[in-house]
Write a structure and sequence with these properties.
The complex is a heterodimer of chains A (486) and B (483).
Chain A lengths: L5 E10 L26 H4 L10 H13 L3 E2 L2 E2 L2 E4 L9 E4 L6 E10 L2 E14 L3 E4 L9 E4 L6 E7 L6 H17 L11 E9 L5 E6 L2 H20 L7 E6 L4 E7 L9 E2 L6 E2 L2 H9 L5 H12 L3 H8 L2 H14 L2 H19 L10 H12 L5 H14 L3 H8 L7 H14 L1 H9 L4 H11 L6 H21 L5
Parallel strand pairs in A: 12-13
Antiparallel strand pairs in A: 1-10, 1-11, 2-6, 3-16, 4-5, 4-15, 6-7, 7-10, 8-9, 11-12, 13-14
Chain B lengths: L7 H9 L5 H19 L2 E4 L1 H16 L10 E5 L26 H8 L3 E6 L19 E2 L2 E5 L5 H8 L5 E6 L5 H7 L2 E4 L19 E6 L2 H11 L25 E5 L9 H16 L3 E5 L7 H16 L18 H12 L2 H14 L8 H21 L2 E5 L15 H5 L6 H6 L3 E9 L2 E9 L4 H15 L12
The chains are: A alpha+beta (486), B alpha/beta (483).
């Protein structure tokens, strides 16, 4: 059986984390870390009599995104009510958009395995985030539901794609590109927990469309889609029709479970929100915002290659996270060796970040301190290998690199006299090897290795080699002539 | 001098000059309200303690030189308007025990002028009704005849003013809810232009139609109240920049349109008679009138109810017992708890409107009902505006019949909806409308209604003032309220 074609479309919910206040009231938009239900007012709690009042900045921020995603912007924007009952929704309706969304018909270019691909954007609209539901244990067994409305009313941007992606890795690439664009626009900080969530639509040729809800990270998107492809393929292989339904991604068990069949799909009873007037978006407004658009990831990649002589691949890795690219550029500016700097950022720093599961901005040091670390490599104070170790310690402790080098005693041993002391010790200890080395020059390397081991790898290997070689030569002379002539 | 016979304006003047103390004023009205309420049931909550405390604080502030338009004036507030620290129920079981943590904008403005909230008045549950019989707290009785309805849905506010239990009151008007009880109570009731009074804190029934407005004994109090409550508010996006200011003028030369459909079949002939008397009176003062046609009249009720019910179905979704009001059952799944709260918390008329509204908005019927109603609404508005191009005001009866007996129409929702037939046009169009006392039929008050163009409340008050001066109907006091 030939592989059946897969179609994937995404609906991404991105919090506009750069806004100071929520979408329809004056509560702070930054709800993170606050005690439950303290970041609320009558409006976001949906108390009787409260009314929404639009945060105009949200519209401007959203226009920025629409322009960056090459969309057509509607000149008249209308908010609708989407009615459904759920405890996380304080009014039991959500103010969202339906007809006349902010923007439609855009596209984003992604790159997977070196191949460019265009993903079409169907629409972008603004809506309010619901509150957060906390279950004790799992959704099925929890004896009660706790609701925290601190998040209720935070501005969300919903970006909906056409079903243009064909593999889970394309979906992941799209999300990474979107996140990077939002970060470059300074609209949303994708590294904040819960700031980007998505639903995925997936169908396999010959089957129906299945929607997977509430996926919280890029990793989970790949996993959920891969699971779903296998599930649907197995069904089709057995001749079972794939049902059109909505499924929930269970992160813990790593399976999708059926939520509801499409036959009983909710009727949201959309109608224009009477408490908000339609918003006119003028050409002047769009032109003004367009003029202020910053450099976007695609353009930045081109520039990075040109300006620093990086490879396409390196530029892509750097721009996958705006803050990573920012970090690199600052480092390159201070240290001035882009190839080395890029190598350190991509190969060492990024690995450490992934390992510790933190973001660039969580680092307790700046590019300046990293440049000092590299300077110690440049002037021979420490080895490249030690530098990697120091970087790890910096990530862990946030201490200054020079401090780490001093306290941990990992300064490189490069003085001949000092190395000679270790050579003495090794020659004393490894007499047999010395004998062998006198006959076979290759064994010299073994002795060098012993010296390095003795110095905990701190001795300069080149100088050590020279010292050891010299000593062997000297011994050979002694063996041949007895005493060395003065 | 009996405080209870004074207008709000007079009370404020006497308090400012030191002839009256706010505490004495409040005590007099509290005493009156407590005495009459068992009979009339105008108040759901008499905020005795809060009113006393406010009066005492006000005395202190007065000594420091505080001044305001409503200094020491008790105000009765319809129980649909949020009052900080005072239970606000919308006359519904679903909101029993709910104490808002904030004041509606109108309340904030009134307090800033020295007014004192003395209680929350009875109403049809969630303002859905035209008789104040549909309250979870029992019907309000008409001070002019205790067997009769008081009109609705702001019936408690109407009765409280008519029975001198409060000098002024606030009501809300979605389809005539201020004007109908004003007519049935022989007082002045004004629905302002949509967008001129902040709805922040007004518990929504149908947000695109409703406005808070004054209910007063006389026209001057009405004007004063309008001065205080109008004006842009940062908490309501639908507002226009407008501050009411009234300079009385002559009615001479004003052109009145009399749409014959609102005087025809279904309207009590005695009511028609009274309104014509008023029109003739205005003519005698120099106004001119012309009979015109309003062919869309037969559609206004259907249009109004579809829009109102649709919005209501969404606005009332938040009453689930999770955060306030009717307690939800924590031991059952949330959807069962929701059903229980909403099943037991709402009255039958509210449930009827929610269900009809859901139906009208549902995917399969949206185009057939809601969208059609919106189009019709545009046509009605355009028609009203086209009339007001050639005329200053449109005159109709406020209601097609005088106050009916309690229980008479309650079993027949459609008969009850008929009470709104004259008033809903103003809400659909968003224009201001006033009900002015127009005389008595068998000892029961009836009202005349005037509609004007956007923000032309001044015209309405000018006409009302003229009628008041010529008829003195406003000086008549119901038997039950003899002082």
């Amino acid at each position: 059986m030939s592989e059946l074609k897969v179609k994937i479309g995404l609906e991404c919910h991105c919090q506009m984390t750069s806004l100071k206040t929520k979408l329809f009231c004056r509560c702070p938009a930054d709800y993170r870390g606050k005690p439950p239900n303290t970041n609320v007012c009558p409006t976001c709690l949906g108390l009787p009599g409260s009314l929404p009042y639009l945060n105009r900045r949200a519209v401007e921020e959203a226009i920025k995104v629409a322009l960056a995603l090459n969309c057509k912007i509607n000149r008249r924007m209308v908010f609708y009510r989407k009615n459904y009952f759920y405890p996380d929704l304080s009014k039991n309706f959500q103010i969202s958009q339906y007809d006349y969304p902010l923007a439609v018909d855009g596209y984003v270019t992604i790159n997977v395995g070196g191949v460019d691909k265009v993903v079409r954007i169907k629409r972008i609209h603004i809506e309010e985030d619901p509150g957060r539901i906390v279950y004790k244990g799992s959704i099925e067994s929890s004896p009660y539901t706790l609701v925290d409305y601190n998040r209720m009313g935070v501005a969300l941007l919903e970006v909906v794609t056409e079903p243009d992606m064909e593999t889970p890795s394309e979906a992941k690439a799209f999300l990474q590109e979107l996140r990077s664009i939002l970060e470059h626009l300074e609209v949303s900080d994708g590294s904040l927990e819960g700031s980007m969530r998505c639903d995925a639509n997936i169908s396999i040729e010959g089957g129906s469309r299945v929607e997977i809800k509430n996926i919280t990270s890029f990793k989970e998107v790949e996993r959920a889609l891969s699971y779903e492809i296998i599930r649907q393929r197995n069904l089709l292989r057995r001749g079972v029709q794939v049902k059109r339904e909505t499924r929930h991604w269970d992160e813990v068990r790593r399976v999708t479970v059926a939520l509801r069949a499409k036959e009983e799909e909710m009727d949201y009873r959309y109608f224009p929100e009477p408490d908000l007037v339609p918003i006119e978006i003028t050409d002047e407004m769009i032109e003004r915002i367009k003029a202020q658009l910053p450099e976007l990831p695609a353009a930045r990649r081109v520039r990075l290659v040109k300006q620093y002589g990086l490879t396409e691949y390196e530029a892509r890795v750097l721009t996958s996270d705006k803050h990573l690219a920012d970090f690199f550029e600052k480092l390159a500016l201070i240290h001035g060796n882009p190839k080395v700097d890029c190598n350190l950022v991509i190969n060492e720093l990024l690995r450490l970040l992934n390992e510790k599961n933190i973001g660039v901005r969580d680092l307790k040091f700046t590019p300046l301190e990293v440049s000092e670390l590299l300077r110690m490599v440049d002037d021979g104070t420490i080895s490249w290998k030690s530098a990697k170790y120091v970087l790890r310690r910096m990530v862990e402790t946030g201490e200054h690199p020079r401090m780490i080098v001093e306290t941990e005693g990992i300064r490189r041993i490069a003085k001949v006299e000092e190395i000679e002391k270790y050579v003495d010790m090794v020659f004393e200890r490894c007499r047999e090897d010395v004998e062998e080395a006198l006959k076979d020059p290759k064994v010299i390397h073994r002795l060098v290795g012993e010296v390095l081991k003795e110095t905990k790898m701190l001795a300069d290997p080149k100088i050590t080699f020279q010292v050891v070689s010299k000593r062997i030569e000297k011994l050979k002379t002694i063996r041949k002539w007895g005493e060395v002539p003065p | 001098m009996n405080v209870l016979s004074l207008t709000a304006k007079q009370i404020a003047e006497l308090v400012l000059t030191g002839s009256l103390s706010p505490v004495d004023v409040v005590e007099a009205y509290l005493d009156r309200a407590k005495r009459l309420n068992p009979k009339i049931n105008a108040f759901i909550t008499i905020a005795e303690e809060q009113a006393r405390r406010s009066a005492e604080e006000l005395e202190k502030r007065l000594r420091k030189g505080f001044s305001g338009k409503f200094v020491g004036v008790p105000v009765a507030v319809k129980d649909v308007i949020s009052t900080k620290g005072i239970e606000t129920t919308c006359a519904s079981r679903v909101l029993k025990g709910y104490i808002p943590p904030y004041d509606a904008t109108v309340i904030r403005r009134l307090k800033a002028e020295g007014a004192i909230v003395m209680g929350k008045t009875n109403m049809d549950e969630f303002a859905m009704g035209s008789s104040t019989e549909l309250s979870a707290y029992g019907p309000t009785r008409n001070p002019w005849n205790l067997e009769r309805v008081v009109g609705g849905s702001s019936g408690g506010s109407g009765a409280s003013v008519a029975a001198r239990m409060a000098p002024i009151a606030l009501g809300s008007d979605t389809g005539g809810s201020i004007r109908c009880p004003a007519a049935f109570c022989n007082i002045v009731g004004l629905k302002p232009t949509y967008g001129t009074v902040s709805r922040y804190g007004l518990i929504s029934y149908a947000c695109s139609l409703e406005q808070i407005g004054p209910m007063t004994l006389d026209v001057d109090d009405c004007a004063l109240l309008m001065e205080v409550i109008t004006g842009k508010d940062g908490f309501d996006s639908t507002m226009i920049d407008y501050k009411f200011k009234w300079t009385p003028r002559e009615v001479k030369g004003l052109r009145l349109a009399v749409p014959k459909e609102f005087f025809g079949e279904g309207t009590d002939e005695r009511v028609v008679d009274k309104v014509w008397t008023i029109i003739k009176l205005l003519e005698s003062q120099g106004a001119v009138y012309e009979e015109i046609s309003f062919p869309l009249a037969r559609y206004v009720l259907a249009c109004y109810y579809i829009i109102a019910m649709s919005e209501a179905s969404s606005n009332l979704a938040r009453y689930d017992g999770v955060r306030y009001g009717f307690p939800c059952d924590l031991s059952s799944p949330w959807y069962d708890s929701y059903s229980k709260v909403r099943g037991e918390g709402f009255g039958v008329e509210v449930k009827r409107r929610i269900i009809l509204g859901c139906f009208a908005l549902s995917a399969g019927y949206y185009g057939r009902y809601y969208l059609k109603a919106l189009k019709l609404r545009t046509m009605i508005r355009d028609h009203v505006l086209s009339i007001l191009k050639n005329f200053d005001v449109i005159v109709t009866p406020t209601t097609p019949f005088p106050p009916f007996k309690i229980g008479e129409r309650i079993e027949d929702p459609l008969a009850l909806y008929m009470a709104d037939v004259d008033t809903v046009v103003a809400n659909l169009a968003g224009v201001p409308a006033i009900s002015v006392p127009a005389g008595f039929v068998d000892g029961l008050p009836v009202g005349a209604q005037f509609m004007a163009n956007y923000c032309h409340e001044d015209l309405l008050l000018t006409i009302a003032k003229c009628i008041q001066d010529e008829t003195k109907f406003h000086t008549k006091v119901p038997e039950e309220a003899r002082l």
